[in-house]
Every structure is written in C-alpha cells, then in structure tokens.
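re: ur question from yesterday

yeah so i grabbed the chain u mentioned. its 280 aa long if i counted rite. heres the sequnce exactly as i have it in my notes:
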Amino acid sequence: MLAASLLFACMGVCVKLSADHFSANELIWWRGAIATALILPWVLVTRSPLGTSLGTRFWRLHLVRGLSGVAALIFYFHAITLIPLATAVTLNYTSPLFLGVLLHFGLKQRVSEQLRWAIAIGFVGLILVLRPSIASDQWLGALLGLGSGCIASIAYLTVRQLGEAGEPEWRTVFYFSLMSCLAGLPGLITSAPLSAHSGKQWLVLIGIGLFGLAAQLCMTSAYRRGQPLVTASLSNSTVLFASAFGMVLWGEHLPVSAWVGVALIVAGGTLANLARPTIN
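ran it thru and got these structure tokens back, copy pasting raw so excuse formatting
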C-alpha cells in the first residue's frame, strides 16, 4: 500500500508537469490507453478464450464504476493543475467521508457512531483546508478537487459491490481503463499531432499511464494480501508523499491551519475506513 501511495503521488507529479501542454481529457486517454495496452496482452495469454475472460454479468456496475471513476479523474487532473498538489490530493481523499454520507443518506443504511464522528472530523478539516488557505483565484481548483472526492465515493462503492459479487480485480481495472480511453478520445483527436511532442512530454505521458497502472495493481494486491483496515489506513500516505513532492519541486507551502485541516481529513478518512466494516 505504501508503494501504491508513492506511485499515485508520482502520477500526480506527472499530471502537474504536463499542465502547460495537455488537456485533462488528453491525459485521461493516455492514462487509460497505456493501462489497456498492458492488460490486454496479459488477458490474451493467460485468460483464453478471450470472450470468456472478458465477459461479465455485471456490466451495469462496470458502467457506473467507469463513468464515475472517469469523471472523478477528470476533476482530479484539473484540480492538480490549479492548486497545490498536496491540497488537490487531500481534497480527492475526502472520498471515504462522502462514501459514509452516501451510505447513510443515499442508500439509507445504518452507520456506526464511529463513522458519524469520522465524517464530522473530516469535514471540520475540510473547512480548515479551504479557508483561509485557498486564494480567491484557486476556488475553481478546490471545488474540482472536492468534486473528485465526492464522485470517487460512487466509484469506490461500485468497486466494493463488484468485489462482493466475485468479479476479479483485473477485469474491473480493465473496463475502467477502456472507458478512460473512450472518454479521453475527443481530447486526443483535437490535440496537437503526436510528432509535436518533445521527449520530456512523452516521458510525462508514459509516466501517467505506468504510475497509474502500477499504483492500481499494488493497491489491489495490498487489499488482497494484507489486513483491510491497515491497508486502508496506509492509503492516506499519498497525501504525505504529494506534500513532499510539492515542496521540493514547486516550493509549495501550506499555512499551519491548512496542515491541521489535512491531518483532520486524513484522520477522518482513516476512521471512516476503520468503521466501514461495521456498516449494516
């Protein structure tokens, strides 16, 4: 999980480095295309026949997971280009809090007292992150980052439902990557020709795809091999890695109040993950 968190932070760095040259939709295409191009040959070799291995009875869940996941990723990529990396990652990691709200108010499930406290703590931290550390010209990025966390909660819920239904993790990753390709295709078509990209730009694009896929595989392996509660708690280390990258590469420094808010959001998200198994 620590490796996955570092790799997700590296993907964020690549997205921020590419902000001046590529649109978010174009980056979404590369994020999905590289993952699809790497997963599909593995499926062909190890999961023959192809139709049987890719076939699924849960196409509705895959559709919801893909649409919500791609939308969250687009919002997240936009946010990274507009606000400090640590802030964008922190806002994206509010998804466990929104998942608790979704379960309680949207799906009318009874939630534990611990999850209610987690949501309250997390949203107090959110207020501290947004005010006064967000400048007037950064509110669009902050809202996009917050939107990515909110929409990602829907994606995580469907991933959970797919897992409970027995759907293999690789199939979930494959269909999400494929839908990322489709969603990002208009951005690719309207972008500059591939021959116009410099060597550095190619490295950044490849980095987004490779880091994103490697992070997903590490995360999937972590949840399969380790204790779910510990794994979920360690996932918040992405915020720490992103903060370090932001300070070293761009000199990003958040005020003390924002750091207190980050700590509360991480604590709230961790408590929400710990409380999730008690939901009934």
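noticed a couple things. Residues 199-225 form the longest helix (27 residues). also Residues 2-278 form one domain.
anyway ttyl
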